[in-house]
């Protein structure tokens, strides 16, 4: 991020994040946190590049093993402050070590996600599951991870290189904080 440029931030959507985690766990349970968190990263980046908005609006921290969407990580761990942001304060999983396990058989409320959100989530989850830990880590150490400012990644760096990249960054800087995800 160039000096003096504001970081692009979105308002996090805890309901979308809960739905996404719930859906992934209905596809395979238990699932390790690395697979789940990288699936969210891949989905957010995919959606950002196609629709100029992420799905979740999480803040991404560049960690040793790749980007971590901080609020989604807190949600996966059922941290009380993030759970308080959910409408009904319920998560349909439990954390056992580094794996989330589905509890119950309720279906996720997919109406919370748009069609484009679902397609990006399917893409991100498929990609994440197709890789082992080492490959996922390597695949998430791109330019956005390398340019992290004090460990925090900027959505501007998640955009693919292209002729209209500068215009997209300008638009995101102007509109992100007002976007409803």
Describe this protein's structure:
The two termini are 23 Å apart. It contains nine helices and five strands; from the N terminus they run H-E-H-E-E-H-H-E-E-H-H-H-H-H. A hairpin with a 2-residue loop joins strand 2 (60-63) and strand 3 (66-69). It is 47% helix and 10% strand. It is mainly alpha-helical and 181 residues long. It has helices at residues 14-27, 33-51, 70-76, 80-83, 115-129, 133-139, 143-146, 155-158, 165-175; strands at 31-32, 60-63, 66-69, 93-96, 99-102.
Number of structural units classed as domains: 1
End-to-end separation: 23 Å
Low-pLDDT segments, ≥5 res: none
Order of helices and strands: HEHEEHHEEHHHHH
Number of helices: 9
Sequence of strands across the biggest β-sheet: 1-5-4
Number-wise, the strands total: 5
- Radius of gyration over C-alpha positions, nearest whole angstrom: 16 Å
Strand content: 5-15%
């Amino acid at each position: 991020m160039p000096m003096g440029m504001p970081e692009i931030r979105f308002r996090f959507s805890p309901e979308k994040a809960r739905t996404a985690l719930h859906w992934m766990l209905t596809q395979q349970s238990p699932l390790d946190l690395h697979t789940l968190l990288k699936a969210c990263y891949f989905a957010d980046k995919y959606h950002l590049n196609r629709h100029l908005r992420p799905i979740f609006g999480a803040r991404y921290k560049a960690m040793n093993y790749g980007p971590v969407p901080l609020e989604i990580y807190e949600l996966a761990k059922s941290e009380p402050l993030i759970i308080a942001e959910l409408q009904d304060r319920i998560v349909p999983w439990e954390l056992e070590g580094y794996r989330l396990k589905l509890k119950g058989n309720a279906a996720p409320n997919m109406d919370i996600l748009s069609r484009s959100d679902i397609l990006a989530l399917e893409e991100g989850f498929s990609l994440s599951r197709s890789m082992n830990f080492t490959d996922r880590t390597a695949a998430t150490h791109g330019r956005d991870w390398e340019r992290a400012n004090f460990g925090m990644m900027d959505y501007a760096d998640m955009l693919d290189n292209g002729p209209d990249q500068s215009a997209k960054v300008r638009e995101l800087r102007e509109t992100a904080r007002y976007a409803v995800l």
